[in-house]
């Protein structure tokens, strides 16, 4: 990596998503959308989204879009998702039907063919052993940000004070190389402004000591955020002490600072007579596909710690994940 | 630690006060400044980044919440900049309770975009009078004066020419916005109109709970879910429809609790369960009774609890199947006192606490949520002392007339029935493996505390009462009641206005006894000429209904065969949610000479109204909010003045009452006598009554009136809530409030041992009423779902993640997170046999109605049913009219028509027939008609 915009930050903000607690409610999606992406040109973009996995995701089939790093080399030829792959934002003409006497139904226009959550809860497998899992996604504020390196205009930089990767809207010239380079499909192009838009990590909130909207407003209490060098923070404990928070698609090579606690809670398979079997419904290979080979070991730690709780003993790890106080999961949630 | 239990750490620790240039101070802004500052002054505030900083800024911050029937009651802050409401965010200041995760943040995907309804295209800006047909959407904009005069004319003419009881006011759920609720009820009370029940009509009222416990319902606050060690999530889907509370379950699981999710489909909550129990729809009572069977067989039951707290030891005459009454045994004895068999003295013993026993201290108040007030009995009244009543055996007693009869405890009578529910038999009914039933029963009895969390999935059925009775039995036999982490916890509808007395005093100024409460299910069934097809299932509804109405067990308005004439609806979308929708549109709605809707958005009821009055959005008025899901009362207040020409509901009814007085004078019809209540009414005084001579002129005054008039909120002020945030109730319904301890109900009965407000003074599982005998439900049994519709698929209409009933169904943001319109969902197998592909248009139909909707194929759906999230607006993306309510008729279970049996009597939302909506059967086929795009 060689880019003058990539400084080693003084501190790195780290986000953790606990997939055992995420309920797929989209509160984070809406909270983020209402705060940051309400202007023309941003209708289709969800800096934060929650999709169903296994599934095609948002943008559609992003997991095969390319970009990231291979053997340390930036992959510049990743796919630039089309509006159809994001989902063409449809509009409704309520006023005409409700106030002007227009006949018929209020229909979405254009006719919806795809949307960011089109295949919600469809998953795979056969009832009652079918599976699905919610997967919240955002910019990973990577340590090796492919977007940053790909930018020909030095418009993307890593903030020294918190390690958040930001598009400088004054410098962005709309080259869109960042969009091709990001393997997670988390940089968007604003056609109206002709600029790249992406998650800013809620840095204005961070600066004031307030957790980002997707974290502070997560009603499932599934999110942690903190500086990874703060040894008292839950992110430090989960990522560095217990090592149960791991990146998604580590093979993309960007070293995300958004980590996931894989789902270890979930029902068992049933035989044809409805008896419970020993194996869990969620297959290991699905999780390995998302989180790499490490995930098996992580699940073992999590299960062992919950077993202590079931036996009536304590578990510091489970307590950290439960997070009785929101304050213990994040820099202050209060606004 | 501050009052939120917070220990602010991290990089904020060592900072001093730094002011925020861009945040202008308001009263609340000041309070939070200390929490929002830049400790190290490390950021450069001069650069381009200010662009984003300004996006997150405001000059005013107020309290807000969403006054919608969702049960959440989520405290928020509302952020305004330059007079425009920008966004909302959970206030996160609900005080933390001990030993459980905190409630914060409360607020979901809908609540975080509630501002959309202020500025959205559905907003009603001006008073409107219809110029086209009802539902066409053609309007004439009029002044407030003209609109009110139009409505007042209709009201005065109706009173003059017909009767005041031809006027309906429909507005549901006082807990959601008690001041708004009260405005219309108060108005109806003063003119002698009638208001409507809603909790029963919505199918949310747990009739089975009233049958067993003599209560409208009560439930633990959701923080107590965390205390359950075995949790049966049964007929509810918290991850989708109790979003602010769902985390307690995930956290309980991490804490070592075992969660079963019992549901026909593999739903969002089931993904977090230890065990997913895929049950056939509507067979829940069988499963619960099989668990009871296992618990009894394996002797895992709590004998003491059964003997002290339930009627299971009470004696039944084998000759008449009736309870052995004091009147049987003693000349002139009570019909409402009962016996058990003392195993020591071998004699029948009269039991204390029954309906026939009057407490020494007579109750001054009869709370609406109880069959009668038994709290005035002394503590320990149910204590058995040395008495050891028999649960089993057959005994002989000599009646007063000298005849000897055999008697058996209820438990003995029940045993042969219970024996039928072996895991093997029940497995055939429910599709649940015997091994799972047995394990679940053992866990529930031994891995305690154990609780059931339930909702619409079990409560929206015709036989939901039997399900609830079985659930309560399961808790009673295992002693899982009255303690933290236990009980049958039922949540559908935001039904619990905890400071009830304040709400009642404001809403029913002449007292509830002098107010006409219309039972909405009966009203709709009767005036809508609904065909229920129940003869196919062997139930003659008309027979039971006729008896209930003729004997006055249930009310019907208007009286004396009159038709309803005026319908005033607000804070509810009655037409859109009406079961038997097609019958209602065809038969009931045209009976109305005048339909009025007060609303901030043009929902279906507004669209089909004659006059539409613009009301203030939730962020434009003052009101209170509360719920059964937590024990805190909080408020909303104006972030901005009501937009366009809208006004708060409280003000609208004040203005309407004034206008009615003026119109009455003009017409020379001001006074009339209300014979039913012996009230001489005078419309010229209406306005003064409505605002109590100016003491209740504003919604703020009305809020404070409620707080002042209920023991649960004594000493609280609106200002206190505004400044300090949500306030915890001082007392509650069936348990005391303890500081820092999650509320769980029934402690007045279980711990203080006061009688239950039922006929027997116990949790009563045996109901010796002719209707119950005729239907074979004198004891909790499994009754198969109604199959009166001769169609192959069960029609399931649950709540949705993306809407609260119809609210937000029209929200663009929510729609874009789905597929742009309503959908039904079916299994891949059912789709394949019908040649249906994902996203096809399909027709869902039966004899009652049809709806044409997009179809989604979902692997987790069970074959044999269609799911359609309920109540999209009539004008959204559905072809050809109708909605999810069209294929659902109104069906009345006769057990809920009983009103002459001690605790089983009509009181609004306490007991009465519910709106059954899960038993309907339909067929589904590809839509082959035209689709405009």
UniProtKB/TrEMBL annotation, chain A:
CDD domains: EBDH_beta
UniProt-listed Pfam families: Fer4_11
Keywords, ordered alphabetically: 3Fe-4S, 4Fe-4S, Electron transport, Iron, Iron-sulfur, Metal-binding, Repeat, Transport
UniProt GO molecular function: 3 iron, 4 sulfur cluster binding; 4 iron, 4 sulfur cluster binding; electron transfer activity; metal ion binding
GO cellular component: cell envelope; membrane; periplasmic space
Entries under InterPro entries matching the protein: 4Fe4S_Fe-S-bd (IPR017896), DMSO_Rdtase_II_Fe-S_su (IPR017839)
Cofactors: [3Fe-4S] cluster; [4Fe-4S] cluster
Compartments in which it is found: Cell envelope
4Fe-4S ferredoxin-type domain span: 13-41, 130-161, 163-192
Subcellular location, principal: other
GO biological process: anaerobic respiration
PANTHER family: NITRATE REDUCTASE BETA SUBUNIT, RESPIRATORY NITRATE REDUCTASE 1 BETA CHAIN
NCBIfam families per record: DMSO_red_II_bet (TIGR03478)
Listed name of the protein: 4Fe-4S dicluster domain-containing protein
From TrEMBL, chain B:
Gene Ontology cellular component annotations, sorted alphabetically: cell envelope; membrane; oxidoreductase complex
Protein's cellular compartments: Cell envelope
Residue ranges annotated for the 4Fe-4S Mo/W bis-MGD-type domain, each copy included: 59-122
Needed co-factor(s): [4Fe-4S] cluster; Mo-bis(molybdopterin guanine dinucleotide)
Cited InterPro entries: Asp_de-COase-like_dom_sf, DMSO_Rdtase_II_Mopterin_su, MoPterin_dinucl-bd_dom, Mopterin_OxRdtase, Mopterin_OxRdtase_4Fe-4S_dom, Prok_molybdopt-oxidoreductase, TAT_signal
Key words of the record: 4Fe-4S, Iron, Iron-sulfur, Metal-binding, Molybdenum, Oxidoreductase, Signal
Molecular-function annotations in GO: 4 iron, 4 sulfur cluster binding; metal ion binding; molybdopterin cofactor binding; oxidoreductase activity
GO biological process, one term: cellular respiration
Pfam family membership, one: Molydop_binding
PANTHER family documented for this protein: RESPIRATORY NITRATE REDUCTASE, RESPIRATORY NITRATE REDUCTASE 2 ALPHA CHAIN
Family membership noted in the UniProt record: Belongs to the prokaryotic molybdopterin-containing oxidoreductase family.
Protein name: Molybdopterin-dependent oxidoreductase
């Amino acid at each position: 990596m060689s880019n003058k915009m990539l400084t080693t930050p003084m501190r790195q903000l780290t986000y953790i998503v606990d997939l055992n607690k995420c309920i797929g409610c989209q509160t984070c999606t809406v909270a983020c959308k209402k705060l940051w992406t309400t202007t023309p040109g941003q209708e289709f973009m969800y800096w934060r989204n929650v999709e169903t996995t296994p599934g095609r995701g948002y943008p559609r089939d992003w997991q095969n879009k390319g970009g990231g790093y291979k053997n340390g080399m930036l992959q510049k030829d990743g796919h630039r998702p089309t509006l159809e792959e994001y989902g063409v934002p449809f509009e409704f003409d309520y006023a005409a039907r409700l106030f002007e006497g227009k006949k018929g139904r209020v229909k979405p226009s254009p006719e919806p063919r795809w949307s960011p959550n089109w295949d919600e809860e469809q998953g795979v497998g056969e009832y009652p052993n079918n599976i699905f899992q919610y997967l919240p996604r955002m910019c990973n504020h990577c340590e090796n940000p492919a977007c940053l390196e790909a930018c020909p205009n030095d418009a993307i930089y890593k903030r020294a004070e918190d390690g958040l990767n930001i598009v400088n809207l004054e410098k962005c010239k709309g080259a869109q190389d960042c969009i091709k380079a990001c393997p997670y499909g988390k940089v968007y192009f604003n056609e109206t402004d002709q600029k790249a838009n992406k998650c800013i990590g809620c840095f204005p909130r961070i600066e004031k000591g307030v957790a980002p909207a997707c974290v502070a407003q997560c009603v499932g209490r599934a999110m942690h955020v903190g500086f990874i060098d703060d040894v008292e923070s839950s992110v430090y404990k989960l990522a560095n002490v217990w090592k149960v928070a791991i990146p998604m698609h580590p093979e993309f090579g960007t070293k995300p600072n958004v980590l996931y606690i894989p789902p270890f809670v979930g029902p068992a398979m049933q035989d044809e007579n409805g008896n419970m079997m020993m194996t869990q419904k969620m297959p290991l290979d699905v999780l390995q596909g998302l989180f790499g080979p490490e995930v098996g070991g992580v699940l073992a730690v999590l299960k062992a710690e919950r077993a202590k709780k079931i036996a009536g003993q304590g578990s510091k790890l489970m307590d950290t994940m439960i997070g009785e106080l929101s304050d213990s999961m994040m820099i202050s949630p209060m606004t | 630690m501050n009052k939120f239990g917070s220990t602010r750490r991290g990089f904020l620790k060592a900072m001093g006060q730094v002011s925020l240039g861009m945040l202008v101070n308001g009263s609340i802004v000041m309070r939070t400044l200390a929490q929002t500052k830049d400790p190290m002054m490390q950021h450069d505030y001069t650069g381009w980044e200010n662009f984003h900083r300004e996006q997150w800024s405001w000059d005013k911050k107020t309290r807000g919440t969403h006054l919608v029937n969702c049960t959440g009651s989520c405290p928020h802050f509302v952020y305004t900049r330059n007079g425009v409401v920008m966004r909302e965010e959970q206030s996160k200041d609900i005080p933390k309770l001990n030993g459980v995760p905190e409630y914060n943040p409360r607020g979901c995907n809908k609540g975080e975009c509630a501002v959309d309804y202020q500025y959205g295209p559905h907003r009603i800006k001006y008073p409107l009078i219809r110029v086209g047909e009802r539902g066409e959407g053609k309007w004439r904009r009029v002044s407030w004066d003209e609109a009110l005069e139009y409505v007042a004319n209709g009201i005065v003419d109706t009173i003059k020419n017909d009767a005041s009881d031809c006027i309906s006011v429909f507005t549901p759920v006082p807990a959601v916005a008690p001041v708004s609720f009260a405005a219309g009820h108060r108005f109806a009370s003063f003119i002698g109109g009638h208001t409507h029940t809603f909790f029963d009509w919505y199918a949310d009222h747990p009739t089975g709970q009233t049958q067993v416990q003599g209560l409208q319902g009560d439930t633990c606050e959701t923080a107590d879910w965390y205390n359950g060690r075995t949790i049966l999530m049964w007929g509810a889907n918290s991850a989708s429809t109790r979003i602010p509370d769902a985390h307690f379950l995930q956290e309980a699981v991490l804490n070592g609790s075992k969660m079963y999710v019992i549901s026909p489909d593999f739903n969002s909550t089931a993904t977090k369960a230890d065990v997913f129990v895929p049950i056939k729809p509507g067979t829940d009572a069988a499963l619960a009774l099989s668990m009871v069977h296992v618990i009894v067989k394996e002797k895992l039951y709590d004998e003491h609890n059964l003997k002290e707290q339930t009627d299971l030891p009470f004696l039944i005459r084998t000759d008449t199947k009736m309870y052995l009454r004091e009147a049987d045994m003693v000349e002139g004895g009570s019909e409402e006192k009962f016996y058990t068999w003392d195993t020591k003295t071998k004699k029948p013993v009269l039991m204390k606490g029954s309906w026939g026993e009057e407490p020494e201290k007579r109750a001054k108040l009869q709370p609406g949520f109880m069959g009668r007030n038994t709290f005035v009995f002394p503590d320990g009244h149910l204590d058995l002392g040395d008495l050891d009543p028999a649960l089993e055996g057959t005994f002989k007693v000599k009646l007063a007339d000298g005849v000897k009869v055999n008697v058996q405890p209820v438990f003995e009578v029940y045993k042969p029935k219970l024996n039928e529910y072996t895991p093997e038999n029940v497995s055939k009914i429910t599709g649940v493996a015997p091994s799972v039933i047995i394990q679940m029963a053992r866990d529930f009895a031994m891995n305690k505390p154990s609780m059931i969390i339930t909702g619409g999935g079990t409560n929206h059925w015709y036989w939901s009462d039997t399900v609830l009775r079985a659930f309560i039995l399961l808790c009673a036999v295992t002693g899982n009641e009255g303690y933290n982490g236990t009980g049958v916890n039922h949540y559908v509808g935001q039904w619990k206005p905890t400071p009830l007395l304040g709400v009642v005093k404001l809403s029913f100024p002449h007292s509830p006894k002098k107010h006409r409460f219309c039972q909405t299910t009966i009203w709709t069934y009767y005036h809508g000429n609904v065909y229920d097809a129940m003869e196919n299932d062997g139930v003659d509804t008309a027979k039971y209904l006729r008896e209930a109405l003729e004997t006055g067990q249930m009310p019907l308005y208007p009286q004396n065969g009159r038709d309803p004439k005026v319908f005033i609806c607000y804070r509810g979308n009655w037409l859109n949610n009406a079961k038997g929708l097609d019958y209602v549109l065809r038969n009931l709605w045209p009976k109305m000479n005048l339909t009025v809707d007060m609303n901030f958005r043009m929902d279906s009821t507004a669209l089909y109204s004659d006059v539409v009055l613009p009301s203030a959005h939730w962020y434009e008025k003052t009101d209170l909010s509360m719920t059964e899901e937590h024990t805190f009362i909080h408020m909303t207040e104006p972030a901005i003045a009501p937009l366009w020409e809208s006004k708060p509901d409280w003000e609208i009814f004040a203005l309407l009452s004034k206008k009615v007085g003026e119109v009455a004078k003009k017409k020379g019809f001001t006074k009339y006598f209300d014979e039913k209540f012996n009230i001489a009414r005078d419309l010229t005084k209406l306005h003064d009554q409505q605002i109590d001579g100016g003491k209740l002129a504003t919604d703020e005054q009305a809020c404070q009136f409620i707080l002042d008039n209920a023991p649960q909120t004594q000493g609280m002020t609106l200002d206190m809530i505004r400044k300090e945030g949500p306030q915890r109730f001082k007392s509650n319904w069936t348990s005391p409030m303890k500081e820092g301890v999650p509320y769980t109900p029934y402690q007045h009965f279980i711990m203080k041992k006061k009688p239950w407000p039922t006929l027997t003074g116990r949790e009563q599982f045996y109901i010796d009423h002719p209707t119950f005998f005729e239907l074979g439900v004198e004891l909790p049994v499994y009754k198969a779902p109604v199959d009166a519709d001769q169609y192959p698929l069960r029609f399931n209409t649950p709540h949705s993640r993306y809407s609260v009933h119809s609210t937000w169904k029209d929200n663009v943001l929510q729609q874009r997170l789905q597929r742009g319109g309503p959908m039904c969902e079916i299994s891949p197998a059912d789709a394949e046999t019908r040649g249906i592909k994902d996203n096809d248009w399909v027709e869902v139909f039966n004899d009652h109605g049809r709806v044409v909707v997009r179809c989604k194929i979902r692997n987790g759906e069970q074959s044999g049913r269609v799911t359609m999230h309920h109540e999209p607006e009539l004008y959204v993306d559905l072809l050809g009219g109708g909605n999810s309510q069209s294929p659902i008729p109104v069906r009345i279970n006769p057990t809920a028509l009983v009103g002459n049996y001690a605790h089983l009597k009509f009181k609004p939302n306490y007991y009465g027939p519910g709106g059954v909506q899960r038993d309907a059967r339909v067929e589904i086929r590809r839509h082959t008609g035209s689709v405009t795009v």
